[in-house]
Amino acid sequence: MFNLRILPLVLALAVPAAAQDDNKPKHDLKFTFKPGAVANQVMTQDMTMTMSMGPQDMVTTISMSVFQTFTIKSVKDNKATIEQEITRVKAAMDNPMQKVDYDSDEEGSDPGMLEGLDNIVDQKMELKLSERGEASDIQAPEDVTGPGGLDMEGALSQIIVSLPKEPVAIGDTWTVSQKMPMGQMGESETDITYKLVSVDESVIVLETTLDLNAEDMEAPNGMQVASAKASGSYTLDRSTGLPKTYDITMTMTMDGPMEMAMEVKTTMKPAPKSEKAPVTGPKKGTPAEKDAPKKEGGE
């Protein structure tokens, strides 16, 4: 009887709480582009693939980092023209057949089985981005692909977030559908759900889940994709409309002549600043220079 007596009180307390949630402040999410803004970013993808081949599993690991510079070239009618330049690529691969340790900044470095990485360095792409994150007029170099048929235009589209047209409160969600490029596996019609975590004048923080359509994917060697899911988070820079940080983990399993499991972790963060060469010797005008012995024949 005690529980029955307190039930009306619990319900009475819950109703005002729900009403209060409905009155949470809503935010009109838009990018506030700044002409001339520059972001130096590095996107890293770490993949672990395990194939069950008889009594022994074969494990392949690949880590690839793409260094990029994004520049807001101009802003017109709340739409930014953004240029992306790939400045450096690093990659490491380890499997029973071959090891790769590649760095485009090192002369003579060989991408090995990851052939095509050297083709994307120094390439530029351009697109227009609206204040709501709608991309248009994407201009990418022709016939430039990375390893595994990586579509550079598609890779760029993955980091772009579509903001809701209506104001949203902290904790609210919205869903957009788009085709997700999957390399040699084609494209997957994907429902992407975003959740607003926080927002201020500088950044928009989101959580995201991706509902990948496994039936759309073309698995190799007569295999079938059994499951595919992904989730992660974004911190969007409002001055560029692009991620300041980005963290997505995707897992996939395949069935068929062999079993395969794959985990791909993709991160994006500001690129480290290049280190300056150390300064050696005294600065000009210092006592050490004034007191130094004069060269023979000097005045």
Radius of gyration: 26 Å
> Unreliable runs, pLDDT <50, ≥5 residues?
275-299
What's the β-strand tally? 14
Straight-line distance between termini: 108 Å
Describe it for me?
The chain is built from four helices and 14 strands. It has 299 residues and is mainly β. It has a single domain, classed as Lipovitellin-phosvitin complex, beta-sheet shell regions (Roll). Strands 2, 3, 4, 5, 6, 7, 9, 10, 11, 12, 13 and 14 form a twelve-stranded antiparallel β-sheet that branches. The radius of gyration is 26 Å and the shape is globular. The protein starts with a helix and ends in a 9-residue tail after the last helix. The C terminus is likely disordered.
Please describe the structure with a list of short key phrases separated by commas or semicolons.
Lipovitellin-phosvitin complex, beta-sheet shell regions, mainly beta, single chain, two-stranded antiparallel ribbon, twelve-stranded antiparallel beta sheet, about 300 residues, globular, disordered C terminus
Give a quick precis of the structure.
The chain is 12% helix and 48% strand. With 299 residues, the chain is mostly beta strands. Strands 2, 3, 4, 5, 6, 7, 9, 10, 11, 12, 13 and 14 form a twelve-stranded antiparallel β-sheet that branches.
